[in-house]
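REVIEWER CHECKLIST
Item 1: Sequence provided? yes
Item 2: Single chain? yes
Item 3: Sequence as submitted:
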Amino acid sequence: MATQLFEGKGHAAVYQKYRFAPGEELQQTILSYVREKRTNPVELVVDVGCGSGQGTRFLAEHFRKVVGADISEAQIQEARDAPSPPNLSYLVCPAEELPFEDGSVDLLTSFTAVHWFDIEKFMKEVNRVVKPRGCVALSTYTADMSLRYGHCSEKLTEIFRETTDLIFKYAHTRVKHVLEDYKEIFEALPFQDKKRITDIFDKIPMTVAGVVGYFESFSPYQAYMKDDPEAAKTLLQETEKRFLDTMGVSSRETPLEFWVRHVCILGCKGP
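Item 4: Structure as written out by the authors:
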């Protein structure tokens, strides 16, 4: 059964504001794979579990027609409210019931979402809607993240991981798929031609405020907020202060480097 944790308007707004688009290395990994495998032009791309559209907008820069799909009406509304090119549209639907004809999708993607789906049902839909010689790219960023700023990168990363560990005490059991680098999801993809890349590193431009907002967008943090709102708010306030004190700056808009490791499953359906 799929798990729905990003339904509220407040969470969707935080998600839109602080979640980042796929980084350059991940983008190039996906685009290179599609160029390698596809002999015909890509007509239709479907981004499943698109949330507020960060990954979907990247795809629209490269392909003729892109559709973002998500089960959350609040997330889709955030996506629709953001500036979008005319070749991009959105719809509300479950990942396990995609409203596309058999063999109609040239490229199906999902960014940091598959672990929330009913994986068995989703994979049946993938197999149904993707064309012969069509491609799949299922990725997630991992908990392997680091912060870099001057000579205090190691301390900043330590603070980041301490806060993450506290928040992740509220993590749903499905997060195990992320912690295991999508191994089970890779095994479930019903294509013979597939591979799993676990060492894609991207540098994401970020500010101290952006890092704190990113924590706020976590589904475990939202669970923490419901359980103990004062403690959750205090944790982020204290984390921000520790970041600023360590960096020796006063502005929460101070830029730093946010490094992320992605895992990406790539597959090509047989003829």
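Item 5: Key structural point noted by reviewer: Residues 1-8 have pLDDT under 50 and may be disordered.
Item 6: Recommendation: ____
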